[in-house]
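Reviewers of the previous submission asked for a worked example of the structure-prediction workflow described in the proposal, so we include one complete record here. The input consisted solely of the amino acid sequence. No template or homolog information was supplied to the procedure at any stage.
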Amino acid sequence: MNFIAAAIAVAGAAIGASLGNGKVISTAIESIARQPELQSRLQNLMFIGVGLIEAVPIMAVVIAFLLIFQ
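From that input alone, the workflow returned the following structure tokens.
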């Protein structure tokens, strides 16, 4: 049962992170297209946002390992 819970946790986190990353990147591209002079600032903010979003699946994998090896 722990294996199923771990798989669901990791899959849900991966799906959520991919949707979040897609939204952040598409919004950044739209913003850069509207105001090209802010490209470097928007890129920096985009990379910070993507990094924060990617922290969620990493935590999900840690929780999954805790569930499996308990």
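Helices lie at 2-34, 39-68. We consider this example representative of the routine output the project will generate in years two and three.
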